[in-house]
Amino acid sequence: MANMAQAIRMALHHGEKHQNLQNIFGEDVGPPLGGVFTVTQGLKTAWNTPLDERGIIGTAIGLSLTGSRCVAEVQFSDYIFNSIDLIKQAGMMCWLSQGRYTLPMVLMTPVGGGVHGSIYHSHSFDSWATRFPGWKVVMPSTPLKAYGLMISAISDPNPVLYLIPKALLRQKGEEKIPGEPQDEGELKSMIDAPLQNRENWKPKWPDLQEYKIEIGKAQVVEAGSDLTLVSYGRTLHLCREVTKKLKKENISIELIDMLSLYPYDWALIKKSIQKTKKIVFVNEDTEVTNFGEHLAYRTSKECFYDLFAPPKVIAGKNIPGVGLHPHFEENTLPSFKRIEEEVRQLLQAQP
Amino acid sequence: MGFRLSKTILKEIHYQMASSRLLDERLIQIFKKRGGYFWVGAPGEEAFGVPLGKLVKKGQGLEYDWLHLHYRCTGTLLAMGLKTKDALRQMMSRKTDPFTGGRNFIHHYVIPEWNISPISSVIEIQHNIALGTAHAQKNTKGISIVTGGDAGTALADFATSLIWSSKPSKPLPLLIIVLNNKFGISTSFDGQHSEKHITDRGKAFGIKTYNVNGNDVEESYYTLQESIEYVRKNRKPALLEAEVSRMYGHSSSSGANYDESQVCPLKTFEQQLIKEKILTQKEIEKIHQDIFEQLKKEELEVSGESEPDESIWSHIYANNEESNWRNF
């Protein structure tokens, strides 16, 4: 099975071949490296830029103003903060121009912890991202979803922030990418650049098929009836483990993968709340003015009389960064243990 | 010394410079009588701005020039064909404002039909965006032109435009123009910058540079013509610095009062036109009076036009796709 890095790479190739994707760029995105996480190896239209996030995002805006589809990368979301005004500007173009300028651009950036990335390789950006009206914001949790979301993002006429949970980039999926060869080794030999002598290397792309995940739609990963867990990206997997463990105790958790943070699939979440009466939102961005708080607010506002207990938000602690030592990371970001404890506590609540 | 430009062009430039000045003066008056919320504009930049507007290859698409202008672009846009009435509509936040529908300040134009990128109040971000249009134009005959002020060159975005446009592997057809009025709001350039000319910074990147007295019409015209042709032909960047005046201060926030200490490019040009017998004093006065009357009439008409009634949620996404979370 392809891992997430390979899946995104294949989606970008699909974009080049079938979706008129003309430029993929960022720092170390082009040859010889093909991205620090190998996401852009072997892509025909990938090129290197100076170490300059503002230039990268500005170039993406300019290219897309001309109608040219592009995917730009900021190497880590930790370094995107110097470009907030440009991101705001991109989200404003369609509205400001009364719909006459649209920006078919994708800005992808790895986010979150889980890799011992220390203070400046562990930041989350999802809550920030949802504060840029005019953008769509997505975050995949599996290779297939990464493939489907990227193909949709490339097709979208609006700017799309494609947040990559960096801890999942090497994680293999349980479902094949449409067109992916049966043998994992074969895929690797086809699309992974050799470690040495890669100057003349060219990938052999599988015959990839279109597969889209509609932006704005969530998915029920596990149907349940006792409590709803809503997450995305890396923490979705922690929630899944908790769900599995509790299932053995005949506790039925409904697990929802949001996939799109904005626009988001409220209809699916609301339906689940009305069924289970209890809900927990889990993500790893810092807890104060967290995106999950918006969802919890909406839950209270619209589903108050459906609820058996107040909604919960499990998020990263409100501290400046994620410290390097595992002790810091474990106590900062949502963990399996913490999610399990909070879920068990909520399960005890009586109406 | 006589003019090199033809009488016809000189008269056109004069008319557009006078229109630009009188329009901005009318806009200031509208602000002062609370008919608009804010004014910023180009009095003092007309001798450079108008020739720029006349020399660009105007149109839509990559074969035409892309313009990433700062908000002192009155003369440039009028020379390209902007209707003064539409500027008044933007100033007075009317529904009929064809650029932003009442969303943005005066001179913050958005004109896709002329490749005018949305003009932003955020200083210098246009330098980053211009890289993208220039990149898309590499294999065309079009070029990208970006304008900004002197104060903005302190921002990293200016350095970005120099570095990216002069990349050895991918030079860009980008003309970078600095309109140096020697001020950032109230802070003098000389007190903050030690470089003699801003263009000196371009030389470090091997970029062709030009310095011009932006208060001189012909010098501006011919230097712009040469620099535009250089970029168009060589598909490489150029950096042009024009020294200009600022006749009414930074904006309405600083009072927007006439500054006698500044050299007025319009008066200077008119004196030259009279001296060279291109126009008489009487003809110039008549031009001013006609423009004044036209603007007065247009202001009255625009004041009777509707205010915006569109939903605030319109156009956030392309094709008006739903963007209001309350409706998700």
Structure in words:
The complex is a heterodimer of chains A (351) and B (328). Chain A has 351 residues and is an alpha/beta fold. Chain A folds into two domains: 4-191, Rossmann fold; 219-347, Rossmann fold, CATH 3.40.50. Chain A has helices spanning 4-18, 53-65, 84-96, 126-129, 143-155, 184-191, 233-247, 266-276, 291-303, 326-332, 336-348; strands at 21-26, 46-48, 69-73, 105-111, 136-138, 160-165, 219-222, 227-231, 253-257, 260-262, 279-286, 312-316. Chain A starts with a helix and ends with a helix. The relative contact order of chain A is 0.13. The mean pLDDT of chain A is 97. Chain B is an alpha/beta fold and 328 residues long. Chain B has a single domain (7-305), classed as Thiamin diphosphate (ThDP)-binding fold, Pyr/PP domains (Rossmann fold, 3-Layer(aba) Sandwich), CATH 3.40.50.970. Chain B has helices at 7-32, 46-55, 74-80, 84-91, 125-136, 156-165, 189-192, 199-203, 217-234, 265-275, 281-303; strands spanning 66-68, 144-149, 174-180, 183-184, 187-188, 208-213, 238-243. In chain B, the strands form two sheets. Chain B has a five-stranded parallel beta sheet with strand order 1-2-3-7-6, sandwiched between helices. In chain B, strands 4-5 form a two-stranded antiparallel ribbon. In chain B, helix 9 (217-234) links the parallel strand 6 and strand 7 (238-243). In chain B, helix 1 crosses helix 2, helix 1 crosses helix 3 (74-80) and helix 1 runs parallel beside helix 4 (84-91). Chains A and B meet through helix 2 and helix 3 of A and helix 5 and helix 6 of B.
